[in-house]
Amino acid sequence: MKELENKLMEKRINPTAMRLVVLDYLLKQTNAVSLTDMELSLEKTDRVTLYRSVKTFEEHGLVHRIDDGTGITKFALCQPACTVDGHHDLHVHFYCTNCGETHCLPKTQIPEVKLPGGYERQETSLLVKGLCAECKN
Ligand SMILES: [Zn+2]
Ligand SMILES: [Zn+2]
């Protein structure tokens, strides 16, 4: 539990019992999860409290949200480069059309996108759809 606490404090998040439970769950996931996934897996949580924890994590650079085109927002843990000052892990996300799981591809960076003059970037995301390694076999 000490290790979990440290992970939160590193991102300047106050380690409440609820946040520790959510972090523990997120660390065990191999794919991005929705709020509903979390709600169903974690006992004694309500959606509002859960959402607040995730929101705090997001604001402190601990998790990022992923729009995988399914209409359901998913969340995954960030790379250590993300801090309270901003998210710096511009990696590609992969949506498997067979199992429906969404994965972070932290080693696959989004190439720099050049915008025409007058346009200002707020965020960039890149989603690749296809078959994940497991479904491909
Ligand atoms: Zn798959
Ligand atoms: Zn990701």
From TrEMBL:
<feature type="binding site">
    <location>
        <position position="96"/>
    </location>
    <ligand>
        <name>Zn(2+)</name>
    </ligand>
</feature>
<keyword id="KW-0678">Repressor</keyword>
<feature type="binding site">
    <location>
        <position position="99"/>
    </location>
    <ligand>
        <name>Zn(2+)</name>
    </ligand>
</feature>
<keyword id="KW-0804">Transcription</keyword>
<dbReference type="Pfam" id="PF01475">
    <property type="entry name" value="FUR"/>
</dbReference>
<dbReference type="GO" id="GO:0008270">
    <property type="term" value="F:zinc ion binding"/>
</dbReference>
<protein>
    <submittedName>
        <fullName>Fur family transcriptional regulator, ferric uptake regulator</fullName>
    </submittedName>
</protein>
<dbReference type="GO" id="GO:0000976">
    <property type="term" value="F:transcription cis-regulatory region binding"/>
</dbReference>
<dbReference type="GO" id="GO:0045892">
    <property type="term" value="P:negative regulation of DNA-templated transcription"/>
</dbReference>
<keyword id="KW-0408">Iron</keyword>
<comment type="similarity">
    <text>Belongs to the Fur family.</text>
</comment>
<keyword id="KW-0805">Transcription regulation</keyword>
<feature type="binding site">
    <location>
        <position position="87"/>
    </location>
    <ligand>
        <name>Fe cation</name>
    </ligand>
</feature>
<keyword id="KW-0479">Metal-binding</keyword>
<dbReference type="GO" id="GO:0003700">
    <property type="term" value="F:DNA-binding transcription factor activity"/>
</dbReference>
<dbReference type="InterPro" id="IPR036388">
    <property type="entry name" value="WH-like_DNA-bd_sf"/>
</dbReference>
<keyword id="KW-0238">DNA-binding</keyword>
<dbReference type="InterPro" id="IPR043135">
    <property type="entry name" value="Fur_C"/>
</dbReference>
<feature type="binding site">
    <location>
        <position position="135"/>
    </location>
    <ligand>
        <name>Zn(2+)</name>
    </ligand>
</feature>
<dbReference type="InterPro" id="IPR036390">
    <property type="entry name" value="WH_DNA-bd_sf"/>
</dbReference>
<keyword id="KW-0862">Zinc</keyword>
<dbReference type="InterPro" id="IPR002481">
    <property type="entry name" value="FUR"/>
</dbReference>
<feature type="binding site">
    <location>
        <position position="132"/>
    </location>
    <ligand>
        <name>Zn(2+)</name>
    </ligand>
</feature>
<dbReference type="GO" id="GO:1900376">
    <property type="term" value="P:regulation of secondary metabolite biosynthetic process"/>
</dbReference>
